[in-house]
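Most newcomers find our protein records easier to grasp once they have seen one. A record pairs a protein's sequence with a compact description of its fold. An example says more than a description, so a record of this kind follows:
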Amino acid sequence: MGKVVIFDWGGVIMHKHPVDNNDKQAIIRTIKSFNPRLTDDEAWNVYTKTLVDENGIYISRQNDGLSIAKWIKRINKASGFNASVEDFSKRFIYEQLKVGYYKEIVDYIHSLRGNCKIGLFSDLIFCCEPVLDKQVDLSQFDYVWLSYKTHLRKNTEEAFELVETDLQVSPKDILFIDDTTINIENAKKRGWNTCQAFGYELDKIKSYVESFLGYKLKSESTGNKVK
């Protein structure tokens, strides 16, 4: 049980396809629900251009009330509406819950318990966690590192150092599964085992996990259906 398999959320669990219903489209729907006059591009720009505060800190690294309130204030100013933190968060969660996720991947992750430790390592904003928890049941994970709670994003060495400090295992005993090249490269630099994959590549993920563990697992998870 000294080995740890760590999963990313977006792309590996959360659905990034098809184009008409992914996490980006959910954000656009959220913004446009408060100002329907905005085009999709305008709504997306409102979101992306307000993620960073006046000190250059991303909202995905913040979970204090003042920072959250300032973020919503930036969104309101940029988009021409006046939503409260509560109303915006509720709408954000509502729209994100419409986005599909790879339930077969979640079932497979849960099936790993008893064979290794399992972790989740993701960059996300505070109102994503209820969606994530509903999809995966975070209580089932041995380790959870969410950027808005750790205040560290995966594009920093400090985020990976925190994971290593918490785990207290050799890098060779870590397998990291993520869909993003830069995150995979950062993990490789630290000597972690890596698997770059999307959630629809369940067979690939299984192969990497079994190679990492050194034996074939029995699992009821088959296929790569999306819920």
